[in-house]
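Q: what sequence does this backbone want?
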């Protein structure tokens, strides 16, 4: 992904429209966005808890980009295509050069992660848009008879710390995560299907989405109860007519739709829903600790081994995404924060 500010991580934030619950409560929007800035203005009724005028002053945060998707009729409305242009296209540029890439969607329950990653109905999110664009690019490249591309896809969910294959949901429950000495953690027996067109991948995606664990909570009608990892492996083989050698480039693209953090009091969860929520929060806090440890290592605050161990193994999510989070220098992860 086009490195912003010299780093190889991009962090963007997106603001969704009010849902019916927020409209019914007469909520007031306290978010403003312009280019990369997100400004939060505390509502005046926060005055009860405010310790001084400083607590009531607007607070500005800078991201690589702030997407205003609050009102579709606004001329500045950021739609699904805008996200794909800024995030999906540069990701594909890198993938076609043979670099691994990753996008995570992170944020509170109901904040618009699944909408932005997968989309609902015809409002395709960044995952189907990346797939479509990828096959268009492959079509262009294969005009040259010496170039052949293959795409493999896998789609899994981590539900209550167990891995389920969404492209092969009949295999009950708990796939094992193993570690390969050179390529790192992988899921044993996970289906990796070769796809030849967008149509084929779209059908698989639809089947996988139907198999994903989703439930209605007070905060979101279609709340993801699992973390989903959609992986594309792009292999390009080019026959060099001068050297008579075949060159191979391979890139892995991991597209991750996390389950949202939640407060049991707001979701109204009890029983199985409550247990799910606790597991979701636990693995998200491990993700937070892994990112904090990686940040300490990269700024030199801590040295590897000397208290600077990254706790990848503390959750299935972080263990599986070890190479996407920081284990491989050729990665360009993008974090999308939703509010
Ligand atoms: N940018 C947007 N424009 C229009 N509608 C949106 C947008 N983002 C989210 N929504 C709507 O808000 C609702 C909640 O979004 P979504 O299911 O994507 O949340 P989520 O972050 O995935 O939540 P969870 O963590 O519970 O899975 C959905 O009905 C979705 O269609
Ligand atoms: Mg979701």
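A:
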């Amino acid at each position: 992904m086009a490195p912003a500010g010299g780093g190889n991580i991009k962090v963007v934030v997106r603001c969704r429209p009010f849902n019916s619950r927020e409209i019914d409560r007469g909520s007031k929007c306290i978010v403003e966005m312009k280019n990369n800035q997100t400004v939060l203005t505390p509502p005046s009724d926060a005055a009860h808890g405010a310790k001084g005028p400083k607590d009531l002053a607007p607070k500005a945060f800078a991201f690589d980009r702030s997407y205003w998707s609050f009102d579709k009729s606004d001329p500045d409305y950021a739609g699904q295509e805008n996200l794909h242009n800024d995030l999906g296209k540069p990701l594909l540029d890198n993938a076609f050069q043979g670099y691994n890439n990753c996008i995570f969607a992170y944020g509170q329950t109901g904040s618009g992660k699944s909408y932005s990653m997968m989309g609902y109905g015809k409002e395709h999110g960044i995952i189907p848009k990346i797939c479509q664009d990828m096959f268009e690019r492959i079509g262009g490249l294969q005009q040259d008879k010496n170039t052949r591309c293959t795409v493999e896809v896998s789609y899994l969910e981590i539900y209550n710390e167990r891995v389920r294959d969404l492209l092969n949901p009949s295999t009950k429950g708990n796939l094992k995560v193993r570690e390969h000495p050179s390529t790192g953690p992988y899921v044993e027996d996970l289906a990796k299907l070769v796809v030849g067109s967008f149509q084929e991948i779209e059908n698989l995606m639809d089947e996988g989405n139907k198999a994903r664990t989703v439930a209605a909570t007070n905060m979101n009608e279609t709340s993801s109860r699992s973390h989903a990892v959609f992986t594309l492996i792009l292999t390009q083989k080019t026959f060099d007519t001068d050297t008579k050698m075949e060159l191979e480039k391979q890139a892995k693209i991991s597209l991750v739709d996390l389950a949202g953090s939640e407060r049991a009091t707001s979701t109204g969860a009890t029983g199985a829903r409550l247990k799910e929520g606790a597991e979701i929060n636990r693995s998200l806090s491990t993700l937070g600790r892994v990112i904090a440890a990686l940040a300490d290592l990269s700024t030199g605050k801590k040295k590897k081994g000397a208290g600077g161990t990254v706790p990848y193994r503390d959750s299935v999510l972080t263990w599986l995404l070890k190479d996407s989070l920081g284990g491989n220098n050729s990665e360009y992860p993008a974090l999308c924060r939703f509010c």
